[in-house]
Amino acid sequence: xxxRIQPVKIVECDxxxxxxxxxxxxxxxxxxxxxxxxxxxxxxAKYEVARTNSNTRRLQKELNRLQLxxxxxxxxxxxxxxxxxxxxxxxEMLKLNERLG
Length: 101
Known about the structure:
This is Transglycosylase. Helices cover 44% and strands 26% of the residues.
């Protein structure tokens, strides 16, 4: 298996203006829900990336698999599968966020 290189994301804190590379952390909120977030190393401002449950994580894995297949062999059919899976994931994320408030 090839190691995937993650691009370095440089952001600027909205509160203190410090530029830093993000290090996403995951916190378990209970009932299978996880929160991804990062913090400013200077002022500790917290930025939420996403909240997920087992269903949204499954859809994300399926989407990643489809994208890898598409990258190896692009096709219209593959593109449509990716678009459909993205929409399914988007709807699930919206439902989860509405439920969690």
